[in-house]
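Sequence and fold:
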Amino acid sequence: MILCYCQDNWAYFTDKPLSEQCGDDWNDIPYEHNAGAPYGEGIVKVAWDGPFKLPGEHCINSSYSVDRINQGAVPWLVTASWHTEFVSIPAGTSLEDFCKLIQKGGGTVYHGPNTKVILG
């Protein structure tokens, strides 16, 4: 499972290669006002919280589509500028690594209703 889309405090993971995964208006700019969740089977949705920001935050309209983000134009999440530990989470990050990186950046990942993801 790899990261293919983020919206608000939700991250979506797919079992497909990024080039084969799609969603509503993933080619439209700005993604934050147009794009929808990924289509199809094999999608896992997890909630997260922490000091991270999305590419479309702190601007009226970003210059990115989901397709461009998933091609590596910018990471899906980066820690806020005031946070001491810089963490970047690009498209294609595995679910396991996503959980580790969110924790490293001072956040928490939740999977399923009221279930906290615990890393060993």
In short: The beta strands are 2-7, 10-14, 43-49, 52-53, 77-79, 88-89, 108-110. Residues 24 and 106 are 31 Å apart (CA to CA). The chain has a mean pLDDT of 90. The radius of gyration is 13 Å.
